[in-house]
């Protein structure tokens, strides 16, 4: 198979489909989403069979248990896909929304209309349900999509792709609006990220290695985050009960998510009160603590190395550092963090405001768990990912992040003087 | 001089200054702008002398008259720089503006705060007044700036840079917040656009060749437009009096600007009425017309070649094409245009809406001159440039386009369930 020719053809078809999908009515897009949900429901048997094939190949190729688990399409995961499609259908359509329409002194009326980006390339790893999640958000926001899933999920993804194609066709929309790459050749990824003539933006979902490689090699903008090294800073003016619950939740609610706390910072004035209570909680939940020298003088913990401060553990490990003031906390966060999500626990008005202003992260919080950094929790309805970049979309990226704006101007024969 | 070491030092200083300028109060930033205006006013003699040196060098190096004209700092251009500084000081500060703050079902309160991008690199050609314009917008939006002007304006730019540095110092802000590169070595540009660790975004201002080269080689996002191939489409339902005035204005108000009409599209049903009147106006103003075959059958004009449809003349030349309907007009614009600014002249509601929706340009207009596509006319207060890209900023880019947003979350000890 000539991958370059194949990807060019996929790109051309996507670009062509984008010119149709940009004009699709809200009704037709929703119909496509709801019909896809029905086809998935009717195809449970086919989906599970395709998935079984992937699981067997995975076992034969020695995939580890965690990967096999992520790869599996259980009935409940199929339910979740169907539910997700119904939810995205229920979200407001961002396309065509006009805001800020106002008259100017010249007499023209100027506003901004929200428009799709065009063609979005999604590159992701083993979870086949991402196929539906990503495709539905891109479709609702009026974009054509090219999806490249993990090679280990090829059969599952193709089976899901057929349901989406049927859903699009039932709604009278071009099936090419959602294309799932049907080759496991890795050169396909290299092509996808270097075709600015066909692809407007890439959204990679997966491990840091994948995302770093894509960011480095892409000739197309990439909406992404690499790490989630999130901090909770317990200030000297914190309500220590709140602090205990929030820090506990930020670390232990889920270990493997990007908005999980990886480093706890504690003001020296409250460390000897707070840390022993917190350490007891962590001991109950078998979370390993790695502390700075001052921390080790208060609670028993392993020594944190320089590397710990910039490590995303994604597991039951937490680094702990005592700081002398807000300045030191902010400096530490901006230096070692990943600009994802950071929270201060404080009852002090001025310090709370300073933390919000000075921490350079996509989400900054006062007295709330970092685990709230999420498209659903923020009211975006859904999210395609989280961006720690500053340009275009930052923080959880929902339908709006998959769109752009254009200026619209109404006149009555107005000319510039 | 070791350009790589020099640029690294400039980048480091900019990054450090950015951490200060992000926190600067509106008052201090405005003071810096107003003080710069005063220092420029007091330094007229020095500025003119420095500029004389550039002009002499330019003449000795055989610069053409147009370039020498753009290079010259007349008293009236100095007045304009001072006026510009005062205007930017009077604009609202975008930094720290919080919008969409709302309670979520979990009880947290979520909103978005506008924040600076960080360090902005500006690359521009001969006009020294760009130094002040660009620096003032970046400063007001809380960014540090590295400016690389044309080598022919080196002395003028350095003299202006001294005024800005004095203004920053007078306001107690770091002088490194605005740095003007003091070498004419072209390697400096290559460095500036490939230091993502120090520079967050590049804004190039100048000819298409410069911008293409920068976009191709940059390892940093670039806010830009390449061409301004703007269209006016006179629909069959146009009010031909309005159409005549708007098309005339779009072409002849100024020839050299990016929002000037370069191609006129006319519906076949009104071509024989409209074109002779329009051609008479253009003849008065000595605008050369290059028409399609159908156009040549109605008015006397040179033949337009395929290349004409994608040419930005930037002068008194206009290509003219007769189309059979809106679909053909939209197809032509999306294929040959530069996604900058396009206008329809029509009294028909449905066709106006279709044009706004289907033309994929950063500004789309009904019954108004393309010349309105401009930051001042749109109410942005000022503009650093116009973007035809879809990601981040699109259309005229003002202070807001030089900022990003971060999510702010207020809780009262909220944890995720």
Q: Which secondary structure elements does this structure contain, and how are they paired or packed?
A:
The structure is a homodimer.
Chain A: H1 3-21, H2 26-42, H3 44-60, H4 65-71, H5 75-90, E1 98-103, E2 109-116, E3 119-124, H6 129-140, E4 144-148, H7 154-170, E5 178-180, H8 187-192, E6 201-205, H9 208-217, E7 230-234, H10 240-252, E8 261-267, H11 268-284, E9 288-291, H12 293-298, E10 302-303, E11 317-323, H13 326-336, E12 341-345, H14 349-358, E13 363-368, E14 385-387, E15 395-397, E16 403-414
Parallel strand pairs in A: 3-4, 3-6, 4-5, 7-8, 7-12, 8-11, 9-10, 9-11, 12-13
Antiparallel strand pairs in A: 1-2, 2-16, 14-15
Helix pairs in contact in A: 2-5, 2-7, 3-7, 5-6, 6-7, 10-11
Key words describing this protein structure:
homodimer; 417 residues; alpha/beta; Aldehyde Dehydrogenase, Chain A, domain 1; Aldehyde Dehydrogenase, Chain A, domain 2; 2 domains; seven-stranded parallel beta sheet; four-stranded parallel beta sheet; 14 helices; globular; NADP (chains A, B); oxidoreductase (chains A, B); EC 1.2.1.41 (chains A, B); NADP binding (chains A, B)
Task: Describe the model.
- Chain A is α/β, with parallel strands linked by helices.
- Chain A has 14 helices and 16 strands.
- In chain A, the strands form 4 sheets. The first copy, chain A, has a 7-stranded parallel beta sheet, sandwiched between helices.
- Chain A is globular.
- At the A-B interface, strand 2, helix 10, helix 14, strand 13 and strand 16 of A face strand 2, helix 10, helix 14, strand 13 and strand 16 of B.
- Chains A, B: It is found in: Cytoplasm.
